[in-house]
């Protein structure tokens, strides 16, 4: 299944969260979204946003100077 | 079946908005949070940029508050719309370029639109009479209600008993008796209420949550407007004002000089938008030049950048100047001495 990529590089929080939030609204439950960020705060903020909005974090990782959060979209 | 009453709370991430939402939640109202991003929000941007801080990323307090309350949080980007509030505040600025009263009116107005679109019944804020000198006074609270269009759909649970009854109280959606009568700048009632709710960890008040209340930041923004001949800014402008040392040697240009590696890395991302200067013979900062410059201007900028490098005491420092297209020119300069850098260059 293909992933939806959200490019949030060079954005500082909360902009990566806003990008993920706005894209998530358009996606069906079960869709996998991968956010690519350069603000390390995204590793905390996107999972926090997922927890309060019913989405599931599948993976968080750092890769060079990028921070990646993989999310499965939950039910509204 | 009784209709579930729903309220949206303006969540800044501070204690007052947390408590206001909690007070209403306790009355059985369904609460969700809304947080507006203006671009000026103090949300750890400096922290995120600086390398030395990266090991301990700062939490987003609004998200954290929402998680403590167990509520959804909607973060809304209002950067573009907010410009008119910053440029032309009807009620003027505070001590710096902070348009606090117009800002509050604007945010409550946006919340009013949001509740209409999302089927919510009323709006909660954590305002307390007398807490803030501009937007939270007894005489300005009705102004916020009236000019935002929220009128009696705006409830301030922490000081509601000091204000006229609102629709949520009159309709019995919330009990007025269970609301509060806080006033003034003291934080003791909030702390006592937090203790009652067993809330021990919360963001400490730090003189506001907006860069526009900061004198140095406002001074840099005022300089930007003066240099451009009009009040205007883009997102990149207001981000860059948070980073580095800003110096204006001549009216037509300023130099943004990184203060440490993280800032240098952040400024790297702007090398296609600005002329950049980097020392090559000595370790030193990355600098951006903002403005239209002559070769003489660039020479002066290079001397200034050299001053903030490891070669500041050297007879000669070599630098490379890169234009927006990526063309590189090598220069060698004598660093400016401290006496050659007037205080007024520092923004």
Structural summary, described in words:
The complex is a heterodimer of chains A (76) and B (347). With 76 residues, chain A is an alpha+beta fold. Helix content of chain A is 29%, strand content 34%. Chain A contains two helices and four strands. Chain A has a four-stranded mixed β-sheet, with helices on one face. Chain B folds into two domains: 6-211, Rossmann fold (3-Layer(aba) Sandwich), CATH 3.40.50; 243-345, no CATH class. Chain B has a six-stranded antiparallel β-sheet, with helices on both faces. In chain B, strands 3-2-1-4-5 form a five-stranded parallel β-sheet, with helices on both faces. Chain B starts with 5 loop residues before the first strand and ends in a 14-residue tail after the last strand. Chain A binds chain B through residues 10, 12-15, 17-18, 21, 39-41, 43-45, 48-49, 51-53, 65, and chain B through 35, 37, 41, 43-45, 47-49, 54, 57-60, 62-64, 66-67, 70-77, 239, 265, 269.
How are the strands of the biggest sheet of chain A laid out side by side? 1-2-4-3
CATH architecture of chain A: 2-Layer Sandwich
Average pLDDT level of chain B: 91
Oligomer: heterodimer
Annotated CATH homologous superfamily of the largest domain in chain B: HUPs
The number of domains of chain A: 1
The separation of the N and C termini of chain B measures 62 Å
State the low-pLDDT regions of chain A, or none.
none
Considering DSSP H and I runs of 4 or more, what fraction of the residues of chain B is helical?
Answer: 25-40%
Assign the CATH topology of chain A: Translation Initiation Factor IF3
Main sheet record of chain B: 6 strands, antiparallel
Structural class call of chain B reads alpha/beta
Query: Can you identify the CATH superfamily of chain A?
Result: TusA-like domain
Give the low-pLDDT segments of chain B: none
**What is the gyration radius of chain A calculated from CA atoms?**
11 Å
Relative strand content of chain A: 25-35%
> Would you give the CATH topology of the largest domain in chain B?
Rossmann fold
Instruction: Name the helicity range of chain A.
Output: 25-40%
Distance between the first and last residues' Cα of chain A: 21 Å
| Alpha plus pi helix count of chain A | 2
Number of domains of chain B: 2
């Amino acid at each position: 299944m293909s992933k939806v990529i959200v490019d949030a590089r060079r954005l500082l929080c909360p902009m990566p969260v806003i990008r993920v939030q706005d894209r998530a609204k358009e996606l069906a439950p079960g869709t996998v979204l991968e956010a690519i960020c350069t603000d390390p705060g995204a590793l905390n903020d996107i999972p926090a946003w997922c927890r309060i909005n019913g989405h599931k974090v599948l993976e968080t990782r750092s890769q060079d100077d990028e921070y990646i959060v993989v999310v499965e979209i939950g039910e509204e | 079946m009784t209709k579930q009453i729903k309220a949206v709370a303006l969540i800044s991430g501070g204690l007052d908005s947390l408590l206001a939402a909690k007070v209403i939640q306790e009355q059985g109202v369904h609460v969700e949070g809304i947080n507006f991003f203006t671009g000026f929000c103090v949300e750890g941007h400096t922290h995120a940029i600086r390398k030395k801080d990266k090991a301990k990323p700062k939490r987003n307090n609004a998200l954290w508050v929402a998680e403590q309350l167990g509520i959804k949080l909607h973060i809304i980007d209002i950067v573009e719309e907010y410009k008119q509030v910053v440029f032309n505040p009807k009620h003027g600025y505070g001590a710096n370029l902070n348009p606090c009263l117009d800002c509050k009116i604007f945010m409550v107005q946006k919340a009013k639109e949001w509740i209409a679109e999302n089927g919510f019944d009323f709006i909660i804020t954590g305002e307390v009479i007398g807490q803030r000198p501009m937007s939270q006074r007894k005489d300005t609270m009705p102004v916020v209600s009236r000019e935002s269009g929220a009128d009696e759909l705006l409830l301030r649970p922490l000081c509601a008993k000091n204000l006229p009854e609102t629709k949520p109280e009159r309709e019995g959606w919330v009990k007025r008796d269970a609301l509060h009568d806080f006033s003034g700048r003291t934080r003791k009632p909030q702390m006592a209420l937090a203790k009652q709710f067993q809330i021990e960890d919360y963001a400490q008040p730090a003189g506001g949550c907006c860069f526009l209340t900061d004198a140095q930041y406002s001074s840099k923004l005022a300089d930007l407007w003066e240099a451009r001949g009009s009040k205007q800014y883009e997102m990149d402008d207001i981000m860059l004002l948070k980073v580095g040392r800003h110096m204006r040697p001549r009216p037509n240009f300023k130099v943004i000089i990184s203060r440490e590696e993280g800032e240098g890395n952040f400024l790297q991302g702007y090398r296609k938008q600005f002329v950049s200067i980097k020392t090559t013979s000595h370790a030193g900062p990355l600098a951006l030049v903002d403005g239209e410059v002559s070769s003489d201007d660039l020479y002066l900028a290079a001397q200034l950048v050299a001053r903030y490098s490891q070669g500041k005491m050297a007879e000669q420092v070599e630098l490379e100047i890169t234009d927006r297209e990526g063309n590189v020119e090598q220069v060698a300069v004598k660093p400016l001495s401290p006496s050659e850098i007037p205080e007024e260059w520092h923004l």
